[in-house]
Design a protein that fits this description.
The chain has a single domain, classed as Rossmann fold, CATH 3.40.50. The protein is globular. It has 261 residues and is α/β, with parallel strands linked by helices. The chain has a seven-stranded parallel β-sheet, with helices on both faces. It has nine helices and seven strands; from the N terminus they run E-H-E-H-E-H-E-H-E-H-E-H-H-E-H-H. Its EC number is 1.-.-.-. Belongs to the short-chain dehydrogenases/reductases (SDR) family.
């Protein structure tokens, strides 16, 4: 007998960073399961094109919300725009700044923290209480395999994803007793626009997957009877994430720095 208790099919899902990559693939996978969608990203033209694609292909309703998550109080303001019931929130939006920290731009670091940390916290704060009140709902926070170790030249990004992983695990424990699931999804290097921005040199850990691979990992976890606080996408990525915890930092960090140079 299969261990899967059900095929996860939320009634309405909100996906941030939905205009491309993992976010767009989440939208396609959820639409294929019959979920209506609220698509959030900065690029309105791409959101509109994706919404038309999904409504035509899967007969679902899609709402687009062009939004810059670096703005303050993003979650609270999104909740005002989207007051209806949301069964699944996918916090996928994020970006990285690569290079020696001392050479970086403070404004870029501020925006990274705003999108990768503050917006995740704010959106969870805005949508989680309603889920707990009704005793059901799901939040998926997209972290990264960089969450499992410091990464020279990606110092702020790796630290931000470590925050997302830790934060999500705490919420998993707090929420599970109320019937709500919180999952941290940890992709490794993935074929998306992310690496068009920061370059391929930031692939020292893990092997490339497709957005479909990453989303399939998340959906398999959500289909499972077992509630898990986090999942790593890809067998090799999982092994590497487990191994870095036993390698001393004085050995790990110079090795990572050489690979990322």
């Amino acid at each position: 007998m299969s261990r899967r208790a059900f095929r996860y099919s939320p009634g309405r899902s909100l996906v941030t960073g939905a205009s491309s990559g993992i976010g767009a693939e989440f939208a396609r996978a959820l639409a294929a399961r019959g979920s209506d969608l609220v698509l959030v990203a900065r690029r309105e033209d791409r959101l509109s094109a994706l919404a038309e694609e999904l409504e035509s292909a899967y007969d679902v309703r899609c709402r687009t919300v062009p939004w810059d998550l670096s703005e303050s109080a993003s979650g609270r303001r999104l909740r005002e725009i989207v007051p209806e019931r949301i069964d699944l929130v996918v916090n996928n939006a994020g970006f990285a700044v690569q290079g020696p920290f001392a050479d970086g731009d403070a404004d870029d670091f501020e925006r990274l923290v705003a999108v990768d940390i503050r917006a995740v916290v704010d959106i969870c704060s805005a949508f989680l209480p309603d889920m707990i009140a009704r005793g059901e709902g799901t939040i998926v926070n997209v972290a990264s395999t960089t969450a499992f170790q410091p990464v020279p030249t990606l110092a702020v990004y790796a630290a931000a994803k470590a925050f997302v992983l830790s934060f999500s695990q705490s919420l998993w424990f707090e929420s599970e007793q109320h019937g709500v699931r919180v999952l941290a999804l940890n992709p490794g290097p993935t074929h998306t626009e992310f690496f068009d921005v920061i370059g391929d040199s930031a692939t020292a850990t893990g092997t490339y997957q497709t957005p479909a691979d990453v989303v399939a990992t998340a959906m398999m976890a959500l289909d499972s009877k077992r509630s898990r606080p986090h999942v790593v996408s890809g067998r090799r990525n999982s092994l590497q994430a487990a191994m870095v915890g036993i390698v001393p930092a004085r050995v790990l960090l110079p090795a990572l720095a050489r690979m990322l140079h």
